[in-house]
UniProtKB/TrEMBL annotation:
Protein name as annotated: General stress protein
Membrane-crossing segments per the record: 12-34, 40-63, 94-114, 120-140
Tree of life domain: Bacteria
Entry keyword set: Membrane, Transmembrane, Transmembrane helix
Keyword Transmembrane in annotation: yes
Biological classification of the source: Bacteria, Bacillati, Bacillota, Bacilli, Bacillales
Organism of derivation: Priestia endophytica
Length: 174
């Protein structure tokens, strides 16, 4: 059981880390391949991109801490200081999401009447991805990529509570 959990946590770590590394590479390649795109002029793009990377980094570190805890103490219960950090990050992420929405308005006002809709649309997709990652980590698990999760989904017909939310709830009772 412990080995299976360790493999699962390692898989989650590698997936998040891969995304953290690949997204900037994809941006750089697209910057040169599609020079007509003016993404780099949009404040909302940079904040959305930062937010996505920041949330993915939190996820990667979260799974690393869980793996370390499992190896060290054969338990995935997090120390209180980690739980407090997660509580702060939940609020910081929420604030950054709201700030990003404000920057969409700012970009629209700056660029009006020549609003770069193609670039704004790409930025909206990145923002939605960041928002979904935030929800997936801090509220409701949206990713169901193994048999156990799929069985739960089929059996209960409801989404699981996010792991970080469980850890925060568990840690808040100390």
């Amino acid at each position: 059981m412990k080995d299976r959990m360790e493999r699962r946590l390692s898989y989650l770590i590698s997936g998040e880390t891969f995304a953290i590394i690949m997204f900037p590479i994809i941006y750089v390649v697209s910057f040169f391949a599609y020079q007509d795109l003016k993404l780099h002029f949009l404040f909302s793009f940079w904040l959305s991109f930062f937010l996505l990377e920041f949330i993915l980094l939190q996820g990667s570190l979260y799974w690393r801490v869980k793996l370390k805890q499992l190896k060290k103490e054969s338990s995935i219960i997090l120390p209180p200081r980690v739980v407090r950090t997660l509580q702060v990050l939940e609020k910081v992420n929420g604030g950054l999401l709201l700030l990003t929405l404000l920057f969409f308005v700012v970009d629209f006002l700056i660029w009006y009447p020549n609003v770069p809709f193609k670039e704004l649309l790409i930025t909206v997709y990145i923002f939605i991805f960041a928002f979904l990652e935030y929800v997936n980590y801090f509220y409701i698990q949206l990713s169901y990529d193994n048999i156990s999760n799929l069985k739960f989904l089929i059996k209960t017909r409801r989404l699981k509570e996010a792991y970080i939310k469980k850890d925060i709830r568990r840690g808040s009772s100390w």
